[in-house]
Amino acid sequence: MDTKIVAKLLTISTICFGIFILTSEYLYNRSLWFDEAHLALFINAPIREIYQTLGYDQSAPLGFIVLAKLIVGLFGNSEYVLRSIPLVSCFLAIFLLYKLLTKYIAQEFIFLGLFQLVTSIIVVRYATEFKQYSSDMAVALFLLTWGSSFLGQKLIFFRALKLGFVGASILWFSFPAIFSLGGIGLALCAQFWRNKSRNEMRNLLVIFCFWILSFVILYMVSSRQIEQTAQDSVLASYWRPTFMPFPPHTIHEVFWFIQNCLIKEVFVYAVGLRPPAGGIIVCIIGGCSIFKKDKQLFILLCAPFLLALIASGFHRYPIIARSVLFYAPIICFFIAEGMVVLWNRPQFWVRMIQGLLLISILWHPIKNIPRLLAHDIIYIEEIKPVLRYVQEHIQKDDAIYVYCGAIYAFQYYSHSFGLDHYRYKLGIRAQYNWQEYIKDIASLKGFRRIWFVFSHITFDEKRGIGEDEYILSYLDSIGVQHGGRDSYNAFGCLYEFKKIP
Which among 407, 433, 359, 417 has a CA at the least distance from the CA of 385? Predict the structure, then answer.
């Protein structure tokens, strides 16, 4: 069979497989976990209240929130509705990556770039999770694909206005969109500076004015979130290891960042290259090939990640898998191009190396397929079976104590399970003083039967136990457990007391 026909069949099969996997995971309809439930609770509130309440630990672009509010207003607030935004975004990302690959990459390895994307565990996760990272990926691909159409073309004033307006608007829908716009701007600057096109440079300034004005307004609107993050020592300590050390003080810092942030978070987690060495080599080969063929395209595609690194150096953008997911398709693009370069070398030893590299790249994605089909790929806090059990067995005089990690999910689901009619206590967060949990539980004295609901449990590495174990050991000393329900990273149980001291 002709090679091009086989390549086309592989490409079509890969796209169909990706759509099937994403749709299957979406229909699986797992419970909203801590982060999703936290964000989902705010959707019915006014926009101003949402943005004043959300902090950096649960930040989301304002445009993403407005879009979610519109869709929820039309179709109701359910998991399917909330997750439809990231799902459609991932479908769009697959289409845009296919478009970008067909424009620049030989047909034989278009399937490889697509296969790498649709079998990435983190891509599938965030395509079916109510967070903005899947839409970040779609926005980045849209901007880079659209931006590539400006390369080698005259930038007339009308096109400059269109690019300026669209870029200024899209900043409100995706935080890392600023890096993709920076890539477009730098590529066009290089092109017009080389051609000494003064008219185009003036039109480019018009574009920059739109983008900068929109970014400044967005920064002012988000200033409260930025201040909150700076003042929160817990959040600051959480994000600190994800920032590029700048300037690096030791060689160890440089190597630590390359190994733990760049290789692990970008190539291993975001793209799904395990082991990463073969994929990194082919990616570099592909990048060098694009640089030789089209330097403006190379700048367009590489600048977003370099700008993200610069922002990370100034502690303004973390380099972790979900925050760099927007760049995963571009790495897939470079890998596909790298394979094309090797394919065009007829030497036997080159073909042997290419075969080994291809096996190295495809090994983990193929290994992931059974897990993808079994939905065994995603961190789950399956609280719905727990709440259903409580609903079926609760009595009218019972009370419910909700552990702090389960609060958002409980609040989201309590009405649908009819548990909001019972007396319930939302637990405090006392990570540094566990004695406070005992005092908090004591506030329910007078109730003979109390249900305890747990999820998103904090584990103390120094003590070697989780907070749930500490709480349950205390409850066992003052009461008797009468049944319960375990689920994935969530459980509920009933305790009967004579009194609560």
Answer: 417
Q: Tell me the average pLDDT across 209-213.
A: 94
Max intra-chain CA distance, the chain: 86
By the 8 A CB rule, do 302 and 190 touch?
Answer: no
Q: Specify the pLDDT at position 57.
A: 53
d(CA 208, CA 255): 36
User: Which of 49-63, 300-314, 361-375 shows the lowest per-residue confidence on average (mean pLDDT)?
Assistant: 49-63
Q: Quote the pLDDT of residue 193.
A: 77
Q: Where are the beta strands (DSSP E) in 114-240?
A: none
Instruction: Specify which residues 466 forms β-bridges with.
Output: 459
Residues 6+ apart with CB under 8 A from 315: 239, 240, 243
Q: What is the mean pLDDT of residues 466-478?
A: 91
Average pLDDT value over all residues in the chain: 88
Report CA-CA distances (Å) from 417 to 83, 335, 383, 420: 21, 48, 12, 8
Q: What three-state secondary structure class fits 485?
A: strand
Strand order in the sheet with 423-426: 423-426, 399-402, 449-455, 490-497, 479-487
φ and ψ at residue 480, rounded to 5 degrees: -125, 130
* Neighbour count for residue 2 (Cβ, 10 Å): 7
Average pLDDT for 492-498: 91
Residue owning tokens 């008219």:
199
Short-list 464, 492, 322, 297, CA closest to 401: 492
**What values do phi and psi take at 426, rounded to 5?**
-85, 115
Strands 399-402 and 465-466: unpaired
pLDDT at 469: 92
